Amino acid sequence: MASSPLPFASSFLQLPSKSKFTHISTPLQAFTNYSCPSSRIRICGVSALPNKKPGPKKTRKKGSGSPSSESEDLVRLLMRNFTDKQPLMHTLNKYVKFVRTEHCFLLFEELGKSDKWPQCLEVFRWMQKQKWYIADNGVYSKLISVMGRKGQTRMAMWLFSEMRNSGCRPDTSVYNALITAHLHTRDKAKALAKALSYFEKMKGMERCQPSIVTYNILLRAFAQAKDVDQVNAFFKDLDSSICSPDIYTFNGVMDAYGKLGMIKEMESVLSKMKSKQIKPDIITFNLLIDAYGRKQSFEKMEQVFKSLLQSKEKPTLSTFNSMITNYGRARLREKADLTFQKMTEMGYRPSFITYESVIMMYGYCDCVSRARQIFNQIGESENEKKVSTLNAMLDVYCMNSLPMEAHELFESTRTTRTFPINSSTYKLLYKAYTKADMKELMQKLLVYMDKDGIAPDKRFFLDALGALGSSSTGKKSTSRKSGVRKQAVTAEG
After folding, report:
1. Using CA atoms, how far apart are residues 298 and 258, in angstroms rounded to an integer?
2. CA-CA distance, 421 to 234, in Å (whole number)?
3. Per-position b or e across 242-267, b if 16+ CB within 10 A of its CB
4. What share of the chain is helix, strand, coil (3-state, %, to 5)?
5. What is the pLDDT of residue 233?
């Protein structure tokens, strides 16, 4: 069946035809180049955002440090001195002569990242007591944003009320933060309705007119909700406003549609982007590659990749990780191996995420022993070990109906502590054991959780019940596949 043409013309995406890869090189041969730059941990999913390439550490000469770097140094010092025995207020009072508003902004961000949002309020109260403090929209906007990301919508609303009581008049940035806070709540329908009401309210206030950031937030949110009509209404409204769409506008909507498998809608937005004469960046290329890969539209995925190679943009590790993972899901092992080869030939050093993608790829392709070989080499290396790598190998065993092998690996790792183990590991195994109806292993896992001080929450058991429901329909097919996969593992060895 002939595939439909891509919506972009050669004017900004040149799409030559067939691949020129010539031979296969196994990822194991490149393991000596393995490096682990600090980046987000992903197990099966692949981000469309580019990874930062590892590079030499920047050094500063005495007396030449920038104000921003000095602020960051002080905040790092404050965070290091903040412990359960040493309260944050004590540390702030110790450095009271040096701490100012810019340091508090950075503290809000760092505390938010480390899930210590209550301490943000302590810092805020401490700020209000200082002589240099002046009530400012920026402070409230930042705090509302942090609270929203942590799902603390009520606290965000309280801060909004507190801001108005302090004499500050809300502006566009504050409303943007408030909209984002509501969009983080679980009740998405209610959150979208609230966001829409704030948007309409902003349009009626001179100092709170929606900015392109406002449109970008709302467009992505409604695209994620599959509300195509509302997305189109926002685009129409944007055309008549003083704001102009930017690359973030289109990338946000296309990424949302792509992750939902709404390819036609994604391509429609891509055409709209072209009509605005906005050129794609690396994020555009990556999200298109990932979207087509998820839908197994590999001809289009490969065309976009070739277009990327001919553009001014450069592929990132995320580009290759996505292709390897999606080829693996389609059990196209040879193409995945070729992608890995292409990556190393171009001088890219695989990260731990790349190797996790390769482990998962071999798992999808029933090459369990190959996946274990890579995992063992990672374990023997001197690089930092990630819990996501262990989870990837355990997931490979579980997806191939090998729960006993998964448990043996888990127990040996727990004994040797070769890899870290956290709640995500227990959640993955408990769900798999529930699906396989391995009650004895489930009980052992709960005992280990208790010993490690990990308390299962409501979500933990709900996910397990979901696995139990799906196992009843797929039990017969699983039992048939189990014997075949065990033979495949033996044959590979």
Report:
1. 14
2. 45
3. ebebbebbbbbbbbbbbbbebbebbb
4. 65, 0, 35
5. 96
Q: Helices H, strands E: what count in the chain?
A: 23, 0
How far is CA 25 from each of CA 343, 367, 423, rounded to the nearest angstrom? 11, 16, 36
Taking the whole predicted model, whether its pTM rises above 0.90 is answered as no
| Closest to 250 (Cα-Cα) out of 228, 224, 278, 229 | 278
Rounded CA separation 478/438 (Å): 14
Within 313-351, residue ranges assigned H as helices are 317-329, 333-345
Q: Answer yes or no: is pLDDT of 50 > 80.
A: no
Sign (positive or negative) of CA dihedral 267, 268, 273, 275: positive
Q: For the segment 225-253, what is each residue's pLDDT rounded down to a tens digit? A: 999 999 999 999 999 999 999 999 999 99
Angle at 136 between CA 130 and CA 140, to 5 degrees: 100
Q: Which of 428, 426, 425, 416 is nearest to 446 (CA)?
A: 426
Closest to 79 measured CA to CA, from 67, 64, 91, 97? 91
Sequence-distant (6+) residues with CB within 8 A of 445 are: 426, 429, 430, 433
Q: Please give the Cα distance from 223 to 232 (Å, whole number).
A: 10
Task: Give kind and range of the element (H or E) at residue 171.
Answer: none
